[in-house]
Amino acid sequence: MHTQINELFSHLWQDYLAITPSAQKIHALLNQLEFSDVETQGQLINDHIALRTFNIEKINLDKLAEHFIALGYVEKGQYDFAQKKLKAKHFEHPDTNQPKVFISELLVEEMPQAIQDIIYKMLENVDEQLALQDNFLYSGAHWQVSSADYETLAAHSEYAAWMSVWGFRANHFTISINHMRKIKSVEQMNSHLKQAGFILNSAGGEIKGGEEVLLAQSSTMADKITVTFADAQQAVPSCFYEFAQRYPMDNGELYQGFVAASADKIFESTNQN
């Protein structure tokens, strides 16, 4: 089972790196910081990944979740993002060394009709069996939109615009600060990243949450990658890297959930501006 989980995350990671060159650089930078003084190279630990989708039956949140549930993951929390018209769930594995999984979906019926039309047009030729395929979670987009449709989506939902280009893949990976040897806080992490020239997501402040909500998070802004639309080429936001620090609950165990108010701002890491 663990082999299968590792294999899935390895595929997701390679697919993510292919469109997130900054993640490779940050990974190298943090490895150098953490392990330059030890003979045996350690490992940066992934706190969680996030995946996105639409709440359309054949590819909805539950269809993505099935791939993780089959590997022993269990649903642990539900979240609503009324303003962004999203809902989400998070999943954990009984083996706490395995990364958590955060899956969100856009509530398509709550979008303006023009947006719904674009999304339904994108998905009309998607096979009902797609979600059952082993590589579904890192299979990318199964459609192509025009640059005009992309801009229309972006004006109403940056989330929908991102999905229209990138489809099914990890939207971000997250480094667990709790597992690091030298960097002990989100503040320290952010300081290292900014010194190295990386741009952080400052929506709601560079640090989202904190000890009072048992979880502090920060993230880079997504890389810009040139993609081919049906009618043009254009650089658009791809994926980003997140950093999480968890705090102990009253029982002494680290909080494992998510904070909706913070996640709401993390979503903005893929905004165009």
Automatic annotation (TrEMBL):
SMART domains: DUF1338. InterPro entries: HGLS. It comes from the Bacteria. Its EC number is 1.13.11.93. Keywords: Dioxygenase, Iron, Oxidoreductase. Coiled coil: none annotated. The keyword Oxidoreductase applies. Its cofactor is Fe(2+). Belongs to the 2-oxoadipate dioxygenase/decarboxylase family. This is 2-oxoadipate dioxygenase/decarboxylase. It comes from Paraglaciecola algarum.
